[in-house]
Amino acid sequence: MASHESRSQEDRETFSGKSREELLVMIQQLKTEVTSLRQSQQLEEEKKTDGGSTKESLGKYKKKRTQRPFDFSKYNKRHVALRIAYLGWDYQGFASQENTENTVEAEIFQALTKTRLIENRETANYSRCGRTDKGVSAFGQVISIDLRSNLLEGSGVIQTINGTAQERSGNKEVEIEYTHILNRVLPETIRCIAWTPVDPKFDARFSALYRTYKYFIPRGDSDIELMRNSAQKLVGDHDFRNFCKMDVGNGVVNFWRTILSIDIQELDNRDDGYQMYELTVTGQAFLYHQVRCMVAILLLIGQHKEQPEIIDRLLDVKTQPCKPQYSMASEYPLVLYDCAYRGIHWIYEQGDQKHNISRLQSMWAQNVVRTATLKRMLDGLQSAPVQTLKTESSGQDQTNQREEDASLRPIITNQTAFLLLGTKSKSYKPLLQRPVCESLEDRIRHFTKKRRLETIETSE
Fold first, then answer.
1. Helix %, strand %, coil % of the chain (to 5)
2. What is the pLDDT of residues 88-107, one digit of tens each?
3. pTM to 2 decimals?
């Protein structure tokens, strides 16, 4: 009791004679000290419970460090091509958009800026081979861009005007590991798999010789051979206005394109109706939604809902100037597989190659286990004895008997039905009996009237 009274007396003596401002300062100091003690106590508790991850805990209370300014004038630039692979299922397409940041291109530029490989997009001399739609993936998307370089000279190296690269300390003979540094900050679903230096005039879009797409199709009860033979009608130079979404608003009024080859091949040799096939189409350039529209027509032919001659009719724009209203094929089985260029020799960095293969194998294993689980369920249902109703007549008396029949053949259905988008109707209406879209001439008049189509240009 005496001790308590003695401490109280000391406190009174400490605070006596202090001004209001001095007392407020002391109170603030005490609050800061209490907060510090509480944080220390919390860190000790977290250390006991999580095995000592004090480093992560301290990060919560550290002030966010501001990035130091980076002097790009100390480096030259290098015009390079990057080969990009991505799983586009969860993205809103490849190209950047104003209303969303969930695009592959937005992620790439965020990584390029974060790693200081570029200063900004406007000065990066950027070009892309193509822009894939929402949900579409790629193995061979190509972009060309000016990146920061360690080198003073060499293929693709561009001297920085008034730069000081010569005076910079550090290695000037070994190039930056572009794929490695990018993949460290890119999402796992987007990978930079290779790079190569290119001429400063190289353009990923206009230098491309051709593009190759793949579309993956389950066989089910589709007539694959009929689809394969019918697809050959698409090869060559044609006006594909009835096999695309006409993008007249962006100045596209020329719909002649060249399909170099198209084929459908099996991915496995099983013969039980559960085979997977891949459609591979190569062309110099493609129209908006062209591949998905072509696949949709081939799927209808494979189901014998349309005859192969429907392709001839749709390619004859004089006889069929307006596109019948039909739904295109789903986006997620579509992959931009390759973009081809003359004289390109890709550089694959060993460390990233191993990581990319390992990561893709892991994702493949997860999905193939799900596939095997579903297949075993199907096997169980298809091998189960099914009771069928058998009717026997004896004079005027009829008796119904149920007998088990375990020899029923597996039921193979239309597995491609889900690939055709749009509302499903009970009865199929042939394409040539359906309402049609606006003609090209009507679309041109529409956008010209709105002054959105002042000059007529061709576009890829």
1. 35, 20, 40
2. 999 999 999 999 999 999 99
3. 0.79
